[in-house]
Amino acid sequence: MDTQTIQTTPPSTKIHLPASLEQNRITTLPEFAYYIPDFISEEEEQAILHKVETAPKARWRQLTHRRLQTWPSDLVKNTLLDSRPLPDWLEQPVVSRLLSMPSSGNEFNIFASSPHRRPNHVLINEYTPGTGIMPHKDGSAYHPVVCTVSLGSSLCLNLYRTKEDGALDPEPVWRILQEPRSLLITTGEVYTEYLHGIDGITTDVNLSQQTVANWNLLRSPSQFQDGTNERQTRVSLTYRDVLKVSNLGSKLGVFRRP
Prior knowledge:
Elements (H helix, E strand, L loop, with lengths): L2 E5 L6 E5 L14 E4 L5 H12 L7 E2 L4 E5 L3 E2 L2 E2 L7 H4 L2 H5 L22 E7 L5 E4 L8 E7 L3 E6 L13 E5 L4 E5 H6 L1 E4 L4 E2 L24 E2 L3 E7 L3 E2 L2 H5 L6
Parallel strand pairs: 7-18
Antiparallel strand pairs: 1-2, 3-13, 4-5, 5-8, 6-7, 8-17, 9-14, 10-13, 10-17, 11-12, 11-14, 15-16
């Protein structure tokens, strides 16, 4: 498999980007989903986590069981109210690498057909052990491409479908194991037709090549050879392109957070 090898500091740490996303497509899923296990280095992971943890308190929104940050602002009526660029620590290295990888062996990257041709919004979620999120779809506010970078710990993302009567099938049809420093991209049918969620558990169980859709793409499948994953705190960075952007918040400053 051809890859782009990027040397970081110290010399022993490398990342491996595919020459084309097609090389990292999760072939057991409907079209299309991609998984890159070593998208960022350990040093980059720690630098981003430090920025997340030291963000101004006003940046955090506390929900019932978890907390989150939105950059550069929240959405109101499916509209991004702040058109400022993302801060440098959310741009580099993630966005530059997303835009550097062809989606199917040609020169076009995964955001080539989106309105702004790049992600303009990042949602940061913190999942402590035992914390999850109900099955849901991301909705119509975004271009149908989601790029999620995982930091700190592994966990399983579940994909669900609805029954013929429209009710949610409570059993996931697929599970994707997301390791620290990995990138998961979902688009196409995986984005539009399926719901995704995370179980509120402390341990992922029954992990194997037969039950994990991206098992053959994992960095360290041997780490889960006993079929379990004990969760620690995981932080996710979800990059998307919001379709509608208003300059109102940027001009007035009333919707800005530090």
